[in-house]
Amino acid sequence: MKSLRTVAALRNLRSQSLWRLLAADKSPVILAILQTLLLDNEKTLSSSVLKERLTREIEQLRASGEDLPQTAQAYIGDWLAQGWLTRRFPVGASEEEYELTTDAANAIRFITTLLRPRSAATESRLAAVMQQLTRLAEETDSNPRSRLAALTAERERIDREIRSIQRGGVKALPDDRALERIREIIALADELAGDFRRVRDEFDKLNRHLRESLMENEGSRGDVLSALFAGVDLIGESESGKTFAAFWRLLIDPEQSAALETSLSEIIGRPFARSLEGRERRFLLRLTRVLLDEGSSVHDVLQTFARSLKTFVQSREYLEQRRLHSLLKEAQRAALETKENVRPNHALAYSLMLTSSQVRSASQLVMYDPSQRITDADMHEASPSEIGLDVVSELVRQSEIDFRTLKQHICALLANQTQASIRQLLETFPAEQGLGSVVGYVALGAKHGEITGDTEMVCWEGDDEVIRRARVPAIYFLRERYFELTD
Q1: Burial class of residue 270 in the structure, from the number of CB atoms within 10 Å of its CB (0-12 exposed, 13-18 middle, 19+ buried)
Q2: Rounded distance, CA 207 to CA 476, Å?
Q3: pLDDT at position 223
């Protein structure tokens, strides 16, 4: 049974984005690109910057032989759908911003540990475990005697060390052990910075859960509503909110921050620090700023969620959402009741006109580039037309043309075909007004048709039964503009 539970848990994990990223066909390329663009340096990039940098990375990888057939925009859309990228629209921003999801960041960190494995068991890690266990045992001990004995022993140890230093017996940690310990600290701090993203995701889930609770709550004054109307910050008062608030207070404490800055400056100046890699030194120099930036981002998200949730309730917007939610549930119940009586392949004597729209992200819009649509500028001499549009306009002003009948002829022809020319109209319907009918068709075409720039030869029979011909502009009436002719 234990194996079955483990298999089920692993199968569920396999369907998540972290596993999919590690198992992707082009996983090495994707991991390298995501790490370079959104983890090593900046953690967040605007849409235009990400597209530009990704395009440059793709071109360089293609030049080295990598098969990357899609465009940068297509890859961004695919990675969003896979759950490796997330996008947000911060308040006051001019465009969307992209960053790695928690799963993608964890996958990259996991692969990085495989590329740069650390020792299986280091003295610094063992010492850290022992110190934490000893401290936990002391701080959870409620016996005054044992606590007093531990503090006395600690005081004696400190006194011995003071006397040893006074006699000139200062013992510094060897460089190899110091280097080992600082690398353990870097690994721990890197994981700590990554935890901020997970905390922010927890707040996001909590925000959605609270809104779902408001939608599912059938009562008028449920627990969530009562607390929000009373001014309680449900997100801030949650377990995740309280934990982060305590950590945030510690991080922004002036005394703690000053001590951290001092310690980092002293460590960077020690001789053993020269053996650190450039990446490790940069991480230590930027550690305080990284922690503050990540923490500030989570703090802003926490405050935004709390304010938006209160506004959502106090503005009574949730009432409209609940009404819509109720209507959807009623429709689902009706569908379940109907499915027992109506088969899926049974034809219903009912037509439902559905509307549709294409939803696109603003980042997918491409600015118009006139240079890509330059037409041939060569001028060709055209044959003179016997009837021009200026002549038509003058004839229209001087004659009474039955435009209503002409429009009916056009609509009748468009009912059977997608487009109609003046020549086809004259072949199908006789020119009852002779030249006036031809002039009328040309006038309607100038207003409701598509002028191609070419000419065509038309013919009609006048009242004197004489066949006449004329070359007129090639104009087509389209079915898409059918309703313009029905007024």
Answers
A1: middle
A2: 57
A3: 59
Q: How far is CA 140 from CA 134, 147, 266, 324, 403, in A?
A: 10, 10, 33, 52, 97
* CA 438/CA 462 separation, integer angstroms: 11
- Residue 366 structure tokens: 């491409």
pLDDT surpasses 60 at 232: no
* Distances in whole angstroms, Cα of residue 383 to Cα of each of 343, 376, 380, 456: 65, 19, 10, 11
Query: Which percentage of the chain shows pLDDT scores above 90?
Result: 3
pLDDT band (50, 70, 90) for residue 41:
confident
Structure tokens at 444: 């309607």
Q: What are phi and psi of 208, to 5 degrees?
A: -65, -40
Q: Which amino acid is at 58?
A: I
Look-up of token digits 């609770």: 213
pLDDT at 79: 92
Cβ proximity of 18 and 100 under 8 Å: no
User: Are the CB atoms for 362 and 95 separated by under 8 Å?
Assistant: yes
Q: Which run of H or of E encompasses 284?
A: helix 278-285
Residue 40 CB partners (closer than 8 Å, separation 6+): none
- Pick the closest to residue 128 from 174, 171, 183 (CA basis): 183
Query: How high does pLDDT run on average in the chain?
Result: 77
Please say whether the dihedral angle defined by the alpha carbons of residues 42, 47, 52 and 55, taken in this order, is positive or negative: positive
From CA 209, how far away is CA 203, in angstroms rounded?
Answer: 10
Token pair, residue 406, equals: 């002409």
Q: What is the pTM of this model?
A: 0.49
CA dihedral angle for residue 51, residue 54, residue 59, residue 64, rounded to 10 degrees = -170
Kindly tell me if the per-residue pLDDT of 415 is higher than 50. Answer: yes
Domains, in order of start, for the chain: 2-115 (1.10.10.10), 175-339 (no CATH), 389-485 (1.10.10)
Phi, psi values for residue 318, rounded to 5°: -65, -25
386-395 b/e with 16+ CB inside 10 Å = b?
ebebeebeeb
